[in-house]
Amino acid sequence: MRHGGKVLAATAVLAGLVASGPAVQASEDPGCAAGVRFTSNYTEAASGLRVMSVEVANCGAEALQLNGYPQVSLFDVERQPLDVAILEGTGGIAILDGFNDPPQPITVQPGETASSAFVWRNTNTSLEPPQVAKHVELATAPGAVQQPLIAVSPQQSIHIDLGSTGRMGVRAWYR
Questions:
Q1: Residue 17: inside a domain, yes or no?
Q2: Which residues form the signal peptide (predicted)?
Q3: Is residue 28 part of a domain?
Q4: Were both Cys, which of 31, 82, 123, 141 would link to 37 (CB 3.0–4.6 Å)?
Q5: Per-residue buried b or exposed e for 99-121, using 16+ beta carbons within 10 Å of the residue's own CB
């Protein structure tokens, strides 16, 4: 019985070590490798016009300085880059309140957020298949590290259905 008790105790210790390893890894936020996390909370769609909210969270230890537009790259379902013009502001796609406001300096403290948005039309006037972005990578400014845009509730996935328009407008960072 004594020997069985030692085996049981050793098994319990090993199980505890194994269990604590993944728990530590799971608590790390992979979306914050560069100190920021990009999320999209919703997409509004009306008569072919689409507007997607975008948020940057400062999950780093230092203040984040923003003054401009998110740097955006769009990819299809196979992660191939799409040939899309990324425009500052609406680029004439639509008239939307605040969307064409000039960039302003913003300081985002650790734990705080700032916002942006995308606008596009789902118009297809070509015999070619429509362009659909299923993956988006963003950076806070030119030269900054790009990271994936994470879709959160209620969407759970990225779907930017550009049709054949070949362009998408981006709003400057704002609060």
A1: no
A2: 1-25
A3: no
A4: 31
A5: beeeeeebebeeeebbebbbbbb
Quick one: pLDDT at residue 34? Answer: 82
- Is 156 a domain residue? yes
For residue 63, the domain's CATH number is 2.60.40
Strand ranges inside 4-88, DSSP E: 36-40, 43-46, 49-58, 64-66, 71-75, 85-88
Residue 19 lies in a domain: no
Instruction: Kindly state the tokens that stand for 30.
Output: 């992979």
Residue-range definition of the domain harbouring residue 125: 36-174
36 within 8 A of 60, measured Cβ to Cβ: yes
pTM, full prediction:
0.80
Tell me the CA end-to-end span of the chain in Å, nearest whole number. Answer: 67
What are the beta bridge partners of residue 160?
133
pLDDT per residue as tens digits for the range 7-41 = 333 333 333 333 333 332 323 455 687 899 999 98
CB 78 within 8 A of CB 134: no
- The pLDDT tens digits for 59-109 are 999 999 999 999 999 999 999 999 999 999 999 999 999 999 999 999 999
